[in-house]
């Protein structure tokens, strides 16, 4: 992919730090702001679109991440807390439910679901159902199972592949995605993309999902500080962002063996944090890759080198990537 193909399509609020991103059924994007308790939306197809504030959640100062709720149209879980990003700690962690209205002029319904005991730092949230979510904990380097009805948090998976390793990154297991009977996850500090075989148990709604085998390491040679991750529905490839060096990696995966190889397909992104791969509403055969960048935000523990996008943060546009079985249009948000 040629570097000159990379252009921005929209500009988020200045000095903002976005992490979570989902695509609504109508094609609009929802993004969570890590440095404020704010949820934003915008129209990715409109190059002149300005992100609009959807809601502000009370009792917290950070929206960590967001996920859709299976079986519910346009409803989402949002993980939030009171965080200190300079020292990488948080407390008073809560799970909220946000119910969007088809009429965007009507504010969404927001429901505080349950508090979450969190002695580590849960960095993501992925719903199995409206009853069960998985929480990758980058600080304690495990994946938790949360019953949203009772608030009970139990250990779902603990493996050496989730540990931080010897790198300089703060976190181990970071992002998580479920595709068919696998839980895919990144290890931020160790530079790994892995998957864990699972089975679903809808007959026991308080359990919902369980592991069925050992972790499979897809690649272990990615740089540290991995953040956003998206796996294709075919499980033949994944996209992983490294927010310190500004690279987007494409990982080719053998679905049968779980082994893979990686290559850098984009560079000089401005601190990419969130990645989402979703079908276009008007053409499900075409997938669009959404990339959220936190831009100019800097904290003491996050080293930054000079970035060629430093002077063009307000430019809007997009890139396309052509692959064998699909076309991925990439939307970058900073």
UniProtKB/TrEMBL annotation:
Top-rank taxon, per record: Eukaryota
Gene3D superfamilies noted in UniProt: TolB, C-terminal domain
InterPro entries linked to this entry: 6-blade_b-propeller_TolB-like (IPR011042), Hetero-Diels-Alderase-like (IPR052998)
Membrane-spanning residues: none
Protein name: SMP-30/Gluconolactonase/LRE-like region domain-containing protein
Origin species: Xylaria hypoxylon
Lineage start: Eukaryota, Fungi, Dikarya, Ascomycota, Pezizomycotina
